[in-house]
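Two entries, shown back to back:
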Amino acid sequence: MELVWWLSYLALGGFVGLMAGLLGIGGGGIMVPVLTSLFVLQGVPHEHLAHLALGTSMAAIVPSSLSSLRSHHRHGAVRWHVVRFITPGILVGTFLATFVAALIPTRELAIFFACFMMLMALQMLANLRPRPSRGLPGPLGITAAGTGIGGISALVAIGGGALTVPFLTWCNIKVQHAIGTSAAVGLPIALAGSLGYLINGWSVSGLPSAALGYVYLPALLLMAPLSILTAPLGARLAHRLPVATLKRVFAVMLVILAAQMVYTVSTA
């Protein structure tokens, strides 16, 4: 692999970690569009672009989600009884959704990704938060919610925070605990999603030689460690920079990246 690709993956991992630490936002919205563009330049066949980007992004979330989980657990912010009931649904929903994703053509998958990211960006721009209006459902209700959260997360390669935090907040979980619990939920999402994309791409022809299913190992091995290193820096900067303004800038960037991804797969 040419040096330029190594540097690109390192830079992407560093930026994703920085944004995650600074804004508390997972990297799928950044990684998937950028990886798609890099894969186009590397000559990956069109039909595999979105799937390889999604699978690689899910795998890259594993180490960062583990680090985030440990940090929130040390601060006592994880509601483990919620994690216990939501995880079975998360695992099933995420894993099965990767099989659905494998059946969706690249262009349509990119359009779904873009629509979700634009909705997320609008929520950030408007600073919309659900009002706490009910209590947590019973174990079956929590598991069912986990299935839906996991399913959507697998289709857009996110750790679930964009869905888990609003759900828990709506159920009268205070925001600090909602964020901490969401961080814990991000690990099973990333693990199940990575495994699913690996299995679905295992026997697919035309993938890069360094791919393990729909997970491109060079990108994973370069992005993941650097994202872990830069996340603490982002967390420190969060206390010095205007985070509210940066969130709006980030939301606009999400829209641009999502639109660029659709354009890329439509013209590749």
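entry 2 starts here
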Amino acid sequence: MSKFENITIEKKANLYFEGKVSSRTILFSNGTKKTLGVMQPGEYEFSTSVKEEMDIVSGQLKYKLAGEDWKSIDGQGVFYVPANETFQVKAQTVVDYCCSYLNE
């Protein structure tokens, strides 16, 4: 899906790691929540409270889920992070992403 319609966007940016990772929250009428963001090159660690779908729209990214080896995305790709987990990423270029919060 290349665009979203009938959404609400929160004006205030979500800033992490001294602004090197930023996103905006978008809300859908059915209660679905996503964030659209950009990561500058660097290494970052995130924690989740719900299952997340990380949709990499562009860029080169390595990611490591708990108990797994490093995996790579070059261009576009998707990976899933279980609820209540910590995961690591290495953005090798500027990375454009969409994170979906999955209430399963």
